[in-house]
Write a structure and sequence with these properties.
Number of strands: 14
Strand content: 35-45%
Number of domains: 2
Strand order of the largest sheet: 1-3-11-14-13
Largest sheet: 5 strands, mixed, barrel
Structural class: mainly beta
Helix content: under 10%
Order of helices and strands: EEEEHEEEEEEEEHEE
Amino acid sequence: MQGVLLSDPLSDGTYHISFESDKVWVGERKNTINNAVVYDYDRYTAADIEALSEGDTIITHLNGTEEITALTVESVERENNYVTINGGIEEGGIDLCKEDDHYRTLTWDDFPAYYEVGVVKQLVMADDIELSDGAADFEADPVIVKGDRAVCDAMSNEEDAYGWNAGNTTVTIQNGEITRADRIWVP
């Protein structure tokens, strides 16, 4: 399935990103995240994966690397909504899980195998941006921060121990600006 296409500015949509807290800047006109790395993960149509058999080829970013690999299928194991190809990631293959109407890559911790798409030099924050930050505690309600200056302050906190990475951070872009940022708890 088609993944993220990097453009400047980013097209409307939701993106997994990573950035360093010192790259969040307060600007004269707009607040920004600079040099954010954008990530994606492989997705496949359910029909393609359910029809996959030995001898077929699957295109993947093996182990989350940026390189595309054409992997020849030597074995396929299916159990419930999970598919293990060539012994899974433990044996140099891939693991997939079904989500809604498609399959996606799966790592040991059940997250997708993210790969780097590229770097966006500047992500501009909308004036009314909202941050939902649940990184501190899985069981607690996320902390909601609203407004570009307050979000900027929260994201640039150097004492933050959780970091902003592809596994825990997404941003929603509308009309060339970040309108929402979400950070989740990751074990």
